[in-house]
Amino acid sequence: MGKYICKRLGMALVTVFVVATLTFFLMNMVPGGPFMSEKAVSPKAQAALEAKYGLDKPLFQQYLTYMKDALHGDFGDSLKQRGRTVSSIIATKFPVSARLGGLSVLVAFCIGVPLGCISALNRGKLTDNIIIVVATCGIAVPSFVICTVLMYTFSVKLGWLPSLGLTTWKHYILPVTALAFYPTAYITRLMRSSMLDVMGQDYMRTARAKGVNQFFVLFKHALRNAVLPVVTYLGPLLAYTVTGSFIVEKIFTIPGLGGEFIGSITNRDYTVIMGTTIFLATLMVFMNVVVDIVYKIIDPRIKLK
After folding, report:
1. What's the burial of 142, exposed, middle or buried (CB within 10 Å: 0-12/13-18/19+)?
2. pLDDT of residue 302
3. For the chain, N or C: smaller number of CB within 10 Å?
4. Alpha helices of 72-169 — where are they, by DSSP H?
5. How far is the C-alpha of 171 from the C-alpha of 252, rounded, in Å?
6. Block means of pLDDT (10 residues each) for the chain, length 305 residues?
């Protein structure tokens, strides 16, 4: 296992390096610059700003300088938020998105897995049909529609829940629900199909023929194997949601990393774009490595090579 983990970590570093390299050069290929949108900035002042942040140097030299600093954990200063470093922005914004995303994944898993099991156990019945319809709607309906419906219903019409910010626990209900709606539906459908496949295996029929209690057949034998595809999905899902959904954060005015990332692209804040991209890529790759290890823990038959 140790050899496999080291191999995966090495591959992860290469992946992050490739992502950072592509992002850097593609970002600089787009016409324009971070200071061209500034009002009343003379060419002389713009040149001074570019010299201050090293943007007047050849592109490849900028790349080498940035990657060297990034290896030491220095992502530079924000080009738009004067006086703030990229690391401080990530450190401030990421915990907000992590809380929101973590709660959403927990809700999606705790609801999606039982619903998938119930749907599989009642295959072809009314309960199964209702769950399938709801899950299909959850996958098909865009997140901004879910956000709008929830906000209009529970905030505007009923006045039960706040719709802006994350001040109290009540502020988490709507954004967490909106962010968890799609993954809950996807996990439900994934769990249903996986459970149906497992329930048709020979060892399940053998266990039932031996008179094993139905509860143990389902939750000790079937669920343990059926949940493996869900675990695979949870890796990238967790990496995505803990950074916050861009749309959800924008609609509910949540000061998370997602909104910061969108703002950096709009404002051509090169250092923030690079810092958040490297951070998100590292998080995504790391979660995939964790999923592979959890795979082995859940099912010892899986060989890690």
Report:
1. exposed
2. 60
3. C
4. 86-121, 126-140, 143-150
5. 9
6. 74 85 82 62 68 75 84 79 81 84 87 86 84 86 83 85 80 87 88 81 70 67 75 74 71 79 78 84 79 67 59
Task: Compute the distance between CA of residue 90 and CA of residue 242 in angstroms, rounded to an integer.
Answer: 13
Residue 305 CB contacts under 8 Å (≥ 6 apart), including other chains: 4
pLDDT score of 104 = 87
Distances (CA, A) of 258 to 28, 57, 172, 276, 290: 21, 30, 16, 9, 23
Tokens representing residue 220 in the block: 């000790």
Contacts of 144 (CB under 8 A, 6+ apart): 247, 251
- Give Cα 154 distance to the centre of its chain: 26
Distance, CA of 305 to CA of 292 (rounded, Å): 11
* Six token digits for residue 37: 């949108």
Strand partners, 77: 85
pLDDT of residue 213: 65
User: Residue 157 has what pLDDT?
Assistant: 84
> What tokens does 105 get?
């994944």
For the chain, give the number of residues: 305
Annotate 33-46 with DSSP letters as a single string.
Answer: -TTTT-TT--HHHH
| Among the listed residues 200, 176, 191, the one whose alpha carbon sits nearest the alpha carbon of residue 224 | 191
DSSP 80: S
Residue with tokens 């992946």, as numbered in its chain:
15
- CA 124, 237, 221: angle at the middle one, nearest 5? 50
User: How far apart, in whole angstroms, are the C-alpha atoms of residue 177 and residue 143?
Assistant: 10
In whole angstroms, what is the distance from residue 260 CA to residue 297 CA?
36
Name the residue among 90, 110, 115 with its Cα closest to residue 242.
Answer: 90
Contact 269, 35 (CB under 8 A): no
Query: Which residue in this structure is represented by tokens 């949540």?
Result: 254
